[in-house]
Amino acid sequence: MTLLAALLRRDLILAARQGGGAGTALGFFLAVLVLLPIGIGPDQATLQRLAPGILWITLLLSVLLSADRIFQQDFEDGSLEVMAMAPPSLELVALTKAVAHWLSTSLPLSIAAPFLGILLNLRTEVIWPLALAMILGSFALSLLASIGASLTLNIRRGGLLISILVLPLYVPILVFGMSATTGNPEMINPSLLILAAITLASFVLAPIAAAAALRAYLK
Amino acid sequence: MQQFANPTRFLAIANKALPLIWVLTIILFAIGLYGALVTAPPDYQQGETVRIMFVHVPAAWLAMLVYTVMALASAVAIIFRHPLADVAAKSAAPIGAVFCFLALATGSLWGKPMWGAWWVWDARLTSMFVLFLLYVGYIAIWQAIEEPGRAAMIARIVALVGFINIPVIKFSVDWWNTLHQPASVLRMDGSTIDWSIRWPLLVLGLAYTLLFLALHLMSMRSEIAARKLRNLQIARSGEA
Amino acid sequence: MDWNADHAGFVTAAYALSLVLVAGLIMYVFNRDARIRKRLAQFEKAKK
Amino acid sequence: MLLSAENLACERGGRTVFSNQNFSLGSGELLQLTGANGAGKSSLLRLLASLSEPSHGKISLEGGAADLTSGQQAHYIAHGDASKSALTVAENLKFWRDFLGGGDLEAALSALNLAPLADYPVALLSAGQKRRLALARLALVPRAIWLLDEPSVGLDEASQKLLVALMSSHLKAGGLIVAATHVPLGVKSDRNLHLGGQ
Predict the structure, then answer these.
(1) Is chain C touching chain A, with at least 3 CB–CB pairs below 8 Å?
(2) Residue C1 is nearest to which of B48, B219, B225, comparing CB atoms?
């Protein structure tokens, strides 16, 4: 456990110092938020209707764009080889790195997103459900992104391939994330429960898949 | 398990079976198309457009069946290290992708006169679209990774992760939206569809399946030859 | 099949598209098989 | 402790890199791997590090911890320096110390003369200094087996002497070293394995 805590700590420090973490992702988030009303038009009613969807999709894209950082640097400088030989299993290393990505990128974004929704005239009564759904869902987003990152570890222009591989996995999260934030209030609880179930399933399966892929690249 | 792993043995069986499979495929297509275009009556609501179903539905079945075959082969490759399993999964993917594309395109041609739109984001179309993306990702992985052993391992993971997600995607997309008519053909409690329409559909479904089997066996044969060629080239370059 | 019915063109298009894609797929698979096996045969012959 | 390879063969991308290699290495012994480029020196080290599996044969370790693989009881110093440019030298070493299960930071810093650089960010270090940082892992965390891939590349004469001293003291303490190199290391070597016999 302390071994993994050391890894988590290092990854968080690196994210903070190298500027690849929450700051850059938030900047990307804001850039998309500026562009969308320009593309859609400034009509307040339209923006209010589209706001949860825009926020969710921007969150997905921000997580996806930062996904390749999860393993790539450690692979290139040889750290991953050392980690693969260390006592903690590669599954736990993959899980820890996904958690670090969540804490440094997805979680800050999902906390900030509902408040940035004010820019899109987001209805105030959906701010809480949206925040809850995003915090729950963002962990699954990071876990699934870690699968994509490990599958495309050493592929030139892997970023595009990550999107093709991971976006299908994001469909369920987007569906239940949206059903928690639009429509009738009766849907909020079941949607959040299903999001929690998806996150739990990702928590179990993603590290196994990611570690298997990492091993194939380390051979 | 290992005795079936022998490619020579597989090739002998495949070469013997292929002519028979092709003949059966052609006969079934002839019967099925006759049923679809001649004997089946036009629908009282949809008119003649209902006949698109006979090429659309089997393509959709096959798109799902082929991905299942790929996932099973990938699981066999991981568990038993069966050397033919990777060949089977890799060879099936392009065929499945074509069937998936056909299902989408004929569905669109059916949708235009039915719903007045080429494309409707309803549950089944959306999950079929996602299935097509899964095919594209799987094929792209084989092309992007040069080292064959590594490509095989990564492709297995891609196929299995996608397969686990298909029911989740299906469930979530169903929840999300349902406009499409419910599944009715293979319902056991007396299908809502008349037998005169059902039999051509089943015959064509079988014809498509046999077509897949034939193409799959041939692609596997090519893939085995390609690997043998590659090994020979490597051995030759070592001698030089 | 009444080829003059409403929307008959869509039916024709769906069948034609299926025919073209399936035929294309069959041709691709046959050509690839023939090409690779020919190269392999040449290679094995050259070796002896 | 006895590290031995039996009938070892390695395949990469369908190509047989080497086959039928046998050796055994006891406590305090150094095995030097030599051979041309592509002869499989790095591949053999990766096999010993349990990063990849041999296509034939097996690697066995007697006298080590039974529940650990040979890789988990080994240091593997490859071409990458496994250090982060945004962290200082000391921070990098502290991370590996904590992650690999504890060790002596001061000893590692002094063994490769890194103490004066301890608080420098790695981004400011030269290639040779980064190499020393990578090698400092050897002195940082105790591991019985050292797998070194061209350890002296990029080191100046003084640093090479530090490396030689480090390796000698490891051997004296009963450790095992397998080193791939095409320049003589200057450590008395008991064994030599030449790969790529043709």
Answers:
(1) no
(2) B48
| Sequence spans of domains, chain D | 2-88+144-195
Instruction: Provide the b/e sequence for A69-81 (b: ≥16 CB within 10 Å).
Output: bbbbbbbebbbbb
Taking CA atoms, what residue in D is nearest to B236?
Answer: D15
Rounded to the nearest angstrom, the minimum Cα separation between D14 and chain B is: 7
User: Does B68 reside within a domain?
Assistant: yes
Q: How far is CA B87 from CA A219, B8, B10, C11, D12, in A?
A: 21, 14, 12, 36, 19
Domain ranges across chain C: 20-48
Task: Indicate if the alpha-carbon torsion angle D153, D156, D157, D163 is positive or negative.
Answer: negative
Yes or no: say if D65 and D38 are a contact pair by the CB < 8 Å rule. Answer: no
Asked if D197 reaches chain B (Cβ–Cβ under 8 Å), the answer is: no
B112 has a chain C CB within 8 A of its CB: yes
The CATH topology of domain D2-88+144-195 is Rossmann fold (3.40.50)
> Residue holding tokens 């090519």?
B222
Tokens of A72: 């790539």
Verify whether the Cβ–Cβ distance A85 to D86 is below 8 Å.
no
By the 8 A CB rule, do B106 and B59 touch?
yes
Say if B144 is an interface residue toward chain C (CB within 8 Å): no
Inspect the interface and report whether the beta carbons of A85 and D74 lie closer than 8 Å: yes
Q: pLDDT tens digits for chain D (198 residues)?
A: 888 888 888 887 777 888 888 888 888 888 888 888 878 888 899 999 989 888 888 888 887 777 777 788 899 998 889 999 999 999 999 999 999 988 889 889 988 889 999 899 999 999 999 999 999 999 999 999 999 998 888 888 899 989 999 999 999 998 899 998 877 777 777 678 888 754
- CA of C28: how far to CAs of A86, B23, B70, B216, C21, in Å? 48, 19, 20, 12, 10
Gap from D10 CA to chain B (nearest CA, Å): 13
Task: State how far the Cα of D105 lies from the Cα of D120, in Å rounded to an integer.
Answer: 15
pLDDT in tens, B107-138: 999 888 888 888 888 778 888 999 999 999 99
Do the Cβ atoms of D82 and A76 come within 8 Å?
no
Domain extent for B113: 2-182+196-239
- The answer to whether D2 touches D62, Cβ cutoff 8 Å, is yes
State how beta strands D15-26 and D2-12 pair.
antiparallel
- Counted residue by residue, chain C has a size of 48
Sign of the dihedral defined by the CA atoms of residues A186, A191, A192, A194, in that order: positive
Q: Give every CB contact of residue D26 below 8 A, 6+ residues apart in sequence.
A: D1, D2, D3, D176
Give me the residue spans of the domains in chain A: 2-218
Tell me if B147 and D13 make a contact (CB, 8 A cut-off): yes
- For residue B226, CA distances in Å to B200, C27, C33, C38 come to 38, 18, 9, 11
Angstrom distance (rounded) from CA B234 to CA B240? 10
Q: What is the DSSP letter of B182?
A: P
At C10-36, the pLDDT tens digits run 899 999 999 999 999 999 999 999 999
